[in-house]
Amino acid sequence: MVKLTRIYTRTGDTGQTGLGDGSRVAKTDPRVTAYGTVDELNALLGICRLHAGGDLEAALTRIQNDLFDVGADLCTPEQDDPPFEPLRVVAAQTEWLEAEIDRVNANLDTLRSFVLPAGSPAAAHLHHARTVARRAERDTAALAVTTPINEHVLGYLNRLSDYLFVLARDANRDAGGDVLWQPGENR
What we know:
CATH class: Mainly Alpha
CATH superfamily: Cobalamin adenosyltransferase-like
């Protein structure tokens, strides 16, 4: 259980931050960048929830909780013999996203062009969240080049951006449909 009684500690005033295993790294460390972008995505999903209701809000709430799991996973380095059982993303979290993508996509028209990130307020915010999810995935992939990470994290982030894409399309379905790219329209 998390218990925060004091919000500031002053321990980060020198440009260092603590990781989940107690070690300290620079705030510019690729690990901090990766989970920082995940945190940014989570905040953006809070904005998406302002334009959601019912099933969409429930799904976004679930994803926000999962993103805290992703952040906890990323902030705790992989160890051979950890002193405690770290929270790790599991395959079932990605599998839920895949099932949701299939469910939502089954009700959408087949795409015949790329989709512009526009439309209803909900769709526009979901498209924005999709781009931040892709950045979180890139930041995490960059971390994985030099540091071992849980293999399920990258899959989760990759599938999440796909899910946010179909959710944006679904949000536009009742608002006039997708805003489609018109190649070369303004030449």
